[in-house]
Every structure is written in structure tokens, then in C-alpha cells.
Amino acid sequence: MTIKENVHQSQPDRLKQIRTFNYQFDATLHDHVVAFGHRLILRYQQVLAEWHALDFVDLLQRTHELFQVPDVANRWREAFSYIHVDEAQDTSDSEYSIISKLYPGNQVMMCGDYFQTIYEWCGSKPKKVFRRFSDECTPKTIVFEKKYRSTKMLLGAAQHYLSDSFGQQEVTQFLQEQLPMDSVEQ
Fold it and tell me: In CATH, what class is 56-139?
């Protein structure tokens, strides 16, 4: 659902969405957002239109719409031979649907570390993106196990944190699922 569509939802629907968060809101702020948030969003959209401006969400939506036209997607796909997607763990479904239109016939390199994702709060789905890329492109997987920028103590602390945060079993299971040993170069 886009922000523009969200503005036109009924008040109870907006309240229900806000209440589904696991966060505790300041009651005054919560009440203010419920009462006046839709006005702020409408004004924001008006200012964007007056300035003939696009925000990040608009850029994604417009690009997605353009890439639905086969001639447009083909033209852009043919403009590139090599595509590098960095920080792939922070890629959302909508972003992936755009960049994946460029893949056919091109050399694609996707880099990312599931355990470094920081944008799940705004839609990134690292497991889904890595799985889709693996299924659609059958890539060669290369794992960089040696870290040159981190001390042994820092790496040990990071591994301990990942195990505590995700559980050692989930960390191990994820690595086994994502990195089949016969396709890994060391």
C-alpha cells in the first residue's frame, strides 16, 4: 500500500495499523498522529507536486511502472552488460522487482551479508531476496571467510552477538541453506 493510498484509509484502519506495532508510543504523540497525521501526509504530497519533486518511494513506484512496459525494460537491460548489486541484504521486494528486470542476458554480481541487514524496518527481506536471486540466476557463491578489517576479538564478539540474537542453530541453518558446500569457493 502506498502512502497516498494509506491517507485515504478510514480512521479505524489507520488506528489498527498503528496498534499492530510492537512499540510503545508516547500517548500524546500517538493521539496527535492519529488526529493530524493524514493532514501532514497530504501536505507533504502537495509540496512534492508543487515542486515537481519525487521522494524515494515515488522513484521506486515510477521506475516499477516504467519497467512494466517491455520496450522500456528491454532498452535499459540492453544498456548494461554488468550489474552489481551491493548491500543486497537491504533490498526490498519492490527494489528487487526493478533490478531483476535487468538481469536476463547480463552478468550479475550480488553482494551482501544477511547478518548485516539494517533495513528490515522499511521493507528489506534478505532471506527472500537471496533465495529469489539463487533460484532465478543460479549464481556461483563465493564466501569471504577471512576478515581483513576486523580484529580477532571483534570478530569473536560479532559471532557471539549473532548467536545470541539469532540463535546458533538459526545462524548455522541459514549458512547451510544459503551456502551449499559444493558451490562454495574458499
Answer: alpha beta
